[in-house]
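Try it yourself: sequence plus zinc ion, in.
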Amino acid sequence: MSDSDCWGRDFALLIIEGVAPVSSAHAIAMEDLVVQALFSPCRLFKHGTHRPQTLGVSFNAPAKALQQLYQSFESQKTLFLSEAPEIIQMASHIVRLSLEDHHTDPYYSGLEGAALDVLEWCISAYGALLNPRSQVKLKVIPMDTVTKGFSLFARRDIPKGSYVWEAMGMVPADNASTSTLLSTTETTAEQNQPSGEERVLYGPVRMINHRCKTYNVAFAAHDGTSAFIVYALRPIVMGQELTLNYGSGWFEESCPCTDCTPLECNTGRISEQMPASPRVPGPAQSILEDRFHLVAELKAELKAEGVALYREQRRQESESRRAEVMKNRANRRRRNLKKKKGGPAGSEGDHTVVS
Ligand SMILES: [Zn+2]
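Structure, out:
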């Protein structure tokens, strides 16, 4: 297991085991708020952003609440890049406290403690995706020719069979009645639940998109908790999208996944299923611009890190190849020398005797 796997596991266990049971309603409201506030402006200026309805069909959080969450998160962002999982957890707690303290927006002062717990958990789980040690990152991609949505991508090569701890999800205490599209999975025997029952998941695992055939990860239940993570069914290379099979019959009529409908032919079946989009509720333009620059800087950093990692791997590979060649050459020389010494009389000079 590599260091990065250990980091992901330590982080996941820290926040999975510290969470109390929550309701689906809290999970849905708080998770979408966190994702929208922390990640939505990524591509706003260059390529146009996603539709917030890809997060939740009825998503419409107050712009001011989003702005406050974003500002509180930004002021602690360096802590989310820490190598110590505990620091990320602490940073999320600081963000939560600052939202509770301000009372500038009635949205947060009106929240129950349980909702704030989910908020804090989601800030930890999603904030950790910005950490260079995380195996995955969140990106905005086209869902069809009309809609853009979020997806998880590999930040580095992920070997077959390894767990992607950062792509975790939690099951709320209540589930079936409030389950939404793209947020449910079937229960497993490991967690002693009646099989076939639908349940809501919250957490980054929810951002993994469905494929009917070409999926590359599968769910793994974390025993003794209500957590799911995923593991790689095949090697996943750096930059590749993580995809899951949600189960047969997931999409009742026509499946919008790119296995069934190539992206260039898919003229917005996902978006047709959504209500008409209100304008993207977002913070003020200047804040978005600041945000965009910060994200661009971070991206450049991460890219540089990826390039450095790639170069180092290539260097090590070529070094080991070179060592191999040298070893073979030395062996050959030794063999030839031996042959010369012990070879039949008459063989001389550089001529090699072929038997
Ligand atoms: Zn499909």
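One thing you can check immediately is this: The chain has one domain: 3-283.
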